[in-house]
Design goal:
Blueprint: H1 2-26, H2 33-46, H3 48-55, H4 61-70, H5 75-93, H6 99-117
Helix pairs in contact: 1-2, 2-3, 5-6
Length: 125
Amino acid sequence: MLQQTKIFLWRILAVIALILGVIGAFLPIMPTVPFVLMAAWAGGHGWPQLEHYLLNHPKYGCYIRQWREHGAVSRKAKCFAIFMMSCSGVMLWFSPAPLWSKWAVTLTMASVALWLWLRPEPKQC
């Protein structure tokens, strides 16, 4: 019974992540790939067929495999993510948010941008 519950919860997480990834494909403010990566990860724990489908997907499969094997992120994705974080940071500074939160978010985004930029780049897919 406990094993079936675990599998069910992993599948629920995979489905939610995949739904968010699909939404992200159509909404520019929401990422796609991190949610697809999470769906593949959760699928690997409770839904091997979904994991297999995602790993062999014609558009995202190569990126998922590159991330799993090398922690690699394409230069295009890095530039786009850093650009979007920069835009968000600029908009944040024009908002009425408290000063401490502006600094906290800006420093967090700068840390993520640095970490992301230092990730290896994948071989051609």
